[in-house]
Design a protein that fits this description.
Length: about 110
C-alpha cells in the first residue's frame, strides 16, 4: 500500500490535475516519498549520489545513477517486491519526466559545479 502511495505522490507532483498536468520534475518529492518507503534504501542511494557527484560534479547524472541504483540495491539485498517495484516504477517516472533535461545534458559538454 505504501508503495502505491509513493508512486501516486510522485505522479501527482509531476502532473498535477489543477495545473493542467504541468508541475515539477519529481526529484524532491521522490526523496520524501522514498523516506516513507524505506529510509535505509534512501541512505544507500545517498552514498551512490555522493560518489557519483564527486566524480562528475553534476547533479542530474548523479541523480540518474541513484534512481537506477536504488531498486537494484533493494533487490540485491532481498527487500520485498512491495519495496522494489515502487522504487523501479518511481525511477522510471522521474526519468521520463526528465527526458528533455537528460537529452540536453547528454548532448552538451556543459559543466556544472
Amino acid at each position: 500500500m505504501v508503495g502505491a502511495v509513493v508512486v501516486a505522490v510522485i505522479v501527482g507532483h509531476i502532473w498535477p490535475v489543477w495545473l493542467q498536468f504541468h508541475g515539477g520534475k519529481g526529484i524532491a518529492t521522490s526523496l520524501g516519498a522514498f523516506v516513507a518507503l524505506d529510509y535505509k534504501i534512501l541512505l544507500m542511494g545517498g552514498v551512490v549520489l555522493l560518489a557519483t557527484y564527486l566524480l562528475t560534479r553534476r547533479f542530474l547524472p548523479s541523480w540518474i545513477a541513484t534512481l537506477v541504483a536504488m531498486p537494484l540495491i533493494a533487490f540485491s539485498l532481498g527487500y520485498p517486491m512491495y519495496v522494489v517495484v515502487p522504487l523501479f516504477v518511481s525511477a522510471a517516472i522521474v526519468l521520463y519526466a526528465h527526458k528533455k533535461n537528460i537529452k540536453q545534458a547528454w548532448f552538451t559538454s556543459e559543466h556544472k559545479g
